[in-house]
Every structure is written in C-alpha cells, then in structure tokens.
C-alpha cells in the first residue's frame, strides 16, 4: 500500500468498466483519483461511488481526442491534488469491426483517434509533469489481447492495440531513467459495455444509417461473448498486483497464453526460413543496433 498511498492517479475513461475498476482498486490503495471521461452521467455516478468509499476523487468531463481537454484536466488535477504520479490511458472504443470494405474511413478515424491518439495526447500531457517533479511514477496503457494477436474482422481495433503495446515497450525503456514504470494491460473479454461503444461516438465521426444498423447487429452478437467475460472488478485488483511486481505486460487471461505462443512460433519459424535463405547470409552475423 505504501508505494501508492497519498499519490495521485489520472484515469481516462474512468467513469465505468475497466477504468472504473482500476480507479476503485487504486483508491483502495490510498491514491487520489482523477477520472476523465466523455460521459457526464456515468462520471457523476463514479465520483459519488468513490466519494462514498472515502476516496479523494475529482471527475473531469473530457474527450481524449482533444489535447486541450487533456491540458485542462491536468491543470485541474494539479490544483486539487498537487503532483500527478500515475497515468492510466484506458479510454477506448470497440469500433471498426467488419471486412476491409465494411470499415469506413470515419470508423478508422474514430477508433484511431480515441484508442491511439488519445493515448498519445494523454502521455504527452501527463508524462512531462511526472518527469518534472522527479518523484517517479507509473504509466499504464490499456491495450488488449488484440495487441498481442491480430483479431479477424477487427482491423482498426487491432491496429490501435498493437500500436499501444509497441509504444509501451518503447516508453518502458525510455522512461526508466525517470523512474516511471510502464505497463501495458492486455485483457481478453471483460464484462463491460465495450460492445456498446457507439454510445460514445462523437458528432464528428458519425456515419451512414445502414452502418448504424450493422453496428447494432455486431453489438448484439458481442453481448454473449462479453457476458461470459471476466468480472470487471477483478481487473483493477490484478492491475494493482502486477504493477506492484513491476510487470511490463499485464495479463488477465492466462488461458490465452497458447494463442500468443502460436503467433510467436509462426514468427520464429519465419525467422528460421529467413536464416536459411542464401540471399541473407551476409546479414546473419551483423550487430543489432537501435533495439536495446
Ligand atoms: N471489455 C473488454 O472485453 C476489453 C478487452 C480488452 C481491452 N479492453 C479495453 O479496455 C478499455 C476500457 O474499455 P471497457 O471495456 O471498460 O469499455 P466501456 O465502454 O465499459 O468503458 C469505456 C469508458 O471510456 C469512456 N470513453 C469512451 N470514449 C471516450 C473519449 N473519447 N474520451 C474520454 N472517455 C471516453 C466511456 O465513456 C467509458 O466510461 C478500452 O481501451 C478497451 O479497448 C476492453
């Protein structure tokens, strides 16, 4: 508990689902919690719940795709609690599902802007503040099992989650000298309202009426899978456990290990074939630069 006690966590998309589960768990560790979320109604409920549990909490209505709103959130967080120590880039949407032809440019933009640019803007706003005070801290990015293995018919979502895993690996090394520990959470299915992400689609990303019907059909199909997912409360507790252990990759579904192993095996097999290629013999003994 001591390492988190009295410190401040900013959690995007913290009003419900996985973000709120992390907020609850970090609040129970004695942290001050700042929730940023696009949904004012859910946000108010989340603030009330944490307040009733004696967690010091601030709710800020914001859209992670807007850098100025990140700046405003950081200002309010600092005014209320002083230094920020932890950023949880959690806000995300489960859009962009379908075939190559079905995922429209609007869908791509929406998913890329929320799931990828939202993480970038959050990190660019908050990490410099953690660096400045010099007390160290944590950067926790919420990716997905889709960041480990490409999911069929989910090209846009997969692209963002692979990117979040990659950025986390990159920042892990970069931020080590600043005593900022980076973790990336990669859950499979969790019982949240991710299948109803359309509720959070901002006006600028609206798409055609027939696509809306398609979204509703996908949401309905996803419901049963989500209903069988992991109970959301476990996820926050698991994040506390893994962050304490200094994990870079945080997994919540050990049963998916074999799926990731199959991918690594396929990659390793492809390397073996490249090593056997007479075209590449001269590269085999060259030094590796830039990757450590
Ligand atoms: N539920 C799962 O099965 C699952 C699995 C793997 C990864 N994830 C990831 O977990 C994260 C949280 O998703 P969840 O499952 O809790 O979904 P959720 O829909 O229950 O919660 C998402 C939260 O983010 C907020 N939000 C959405 N767009 C926003 C925006 N532009 N700006 C600010 N807030 C915004 C929503 O209002 C909501 O409070 C996402 O990044 C998602 O991709 C979820």
From TrEMBL:
Pfam families: adh_short
Keywords: NADP, Oxidoreductase
Gene3D superfamilies: NAD(P)-binding Rossmann-like Domain (3.40.50.720)
Signal peptide from the UniProt entry: none
Molecular-function annotations in GO: oxidoreductase activity
InterPro entries: NAD(P)-bd_dom_sf, SDR_fam
Family statement: Belongs to the short-chain dehydrogenases/reductases (SDR) family.
This protein's name: Oxidoreductase
Organism: marine sediment metagenome
Lineage, broadest ranks: unclassified sequences, metagenomes, ecological metagenomes
């Amino acid at each position: 508990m001591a390492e988190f006690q009295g410190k401040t966590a900013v959690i995007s998309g913290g009003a419900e689902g996985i973000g709120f589960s992390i907020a609850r768990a970090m609040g129970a560790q004695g942290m001050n919690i700042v929730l940023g979320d696009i949904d004012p109604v859910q946000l108010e409920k989340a603030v009330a719940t944490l307040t009733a549990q004696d967690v010091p909490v601030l709710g800020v209505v914001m859209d992670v795709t807007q850098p100025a709103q990140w700046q405003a959130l950081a200002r309010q967080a600092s005014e209320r609690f002083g230094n920020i120590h932890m950023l949880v880039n959690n806000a995300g949407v489960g859009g962009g599902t379908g075939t190559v032809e079905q995922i429209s440019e609007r869908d791509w933009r929406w998913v890329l802007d929320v799931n990828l640019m939202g993480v970038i803007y959050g990190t660019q706003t908050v990490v410099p503040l953690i660096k400045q005070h010099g007390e160290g801290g944590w950067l926790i990015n919420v990716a997905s099992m889709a960041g480990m293995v490409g999911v069929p018919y989910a090209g846009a979502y997969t692209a963002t989650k692979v990117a979040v895993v990659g950025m986390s690996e990159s920042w892990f090394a970069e931020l080590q000298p600043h005593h900022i520990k980076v973790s990336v959470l990669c859950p499979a299915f969790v019982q949240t309202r991710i299948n109803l992400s359309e509720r959070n689609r901002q006006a600028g990303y609206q798409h055609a009426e027939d696509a809306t019907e398609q979204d509703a059909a996908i949401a309905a199909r996803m419901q049963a899978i989500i209903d069988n997912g992991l109970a959301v409360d476990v996820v926050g507790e698991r994040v506390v456990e893994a962050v304490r252990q200094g994990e870079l990759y945080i997994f919540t579904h050990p049963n998916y290990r074999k799926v990731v192993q199959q991918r690594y095996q396929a990659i390793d097999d492809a390397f073996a074939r490249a090593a056997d290629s007479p075209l590449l013999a001269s590269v085999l003994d060259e030094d590796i630069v830039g990757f450590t």
